[in-house]
Amino acid sequence: MLWLEECLYCGGFVYHLNDGRIKCSACLKKISKNKINKTITLIDAFITNETAHATAKRLALSYASVQKQFHIFRALCGVICEDEYEQIRHLSCEFEEYFYLEESKKAQKEAIFDAHNFLTFDYQGHIYTLLLPSLQKYKQKFLDDNVEDAYIQTFKKFKRESKLIKLQHSQKNIINFWQYFENHICIYKGVEHTQFAYFLKEFEFKYNHTKNQAKELLIKEYFTS
Prior knowledge:
The protein has helices at 33-47, 52-59, 63-88, 136-144, 148-160, 172-185, 196-208, 211-224; strands at residues 14-16, 21-24, 30-32, 94-100, 116-123, 126-131. By secondary structure, the protein is of the alpha+beta class. It has one domain (48-224). The radius of gyration is 21 Å and the shape is globular.
């Protein structure tokens, strides 16, 4: 393994200590090989879309500790996505708005206020997402004012005739991302509204990279950020 020869934090030469750890000759960090192996094993599980519950059970680890690590990985996915966006933002792009609502809520009239609304950009093959403000804070006001029916009808019309559609050529990559997102977000069986942005960036990151690329990028970001 490469990390047995060079430091994951700075790339410096490492040497092995008698207690089983390795020490970097440059930054002087002492690193537990078992801890590194555990982290990389968890990154592997995360990249393959294994849930925290399934991972904790398979590896005989605490669910809380695995869940905490997965949350860190999601946050790092967001960091990587934003860094990559800065490198491609000068390119021409196509974009379209998307509304995501959990399958279990689609039959509920008032659940429209729980929809997650985000823009999906295709920068010449690279997907970037931008989450728009939530409508939840307006939900009670509409209900109190008895105008939710009018709003819902307007909302449905807006979805059909969105003025935000700016596609000039093919929708294929954007649509493929939506399908990928819908197929994979459901494995979590419900995501808290406040956490949705992290999951969106997780799947943006995974969609844009092969599993090997994603693993390498996540390991690098985890140990150097």
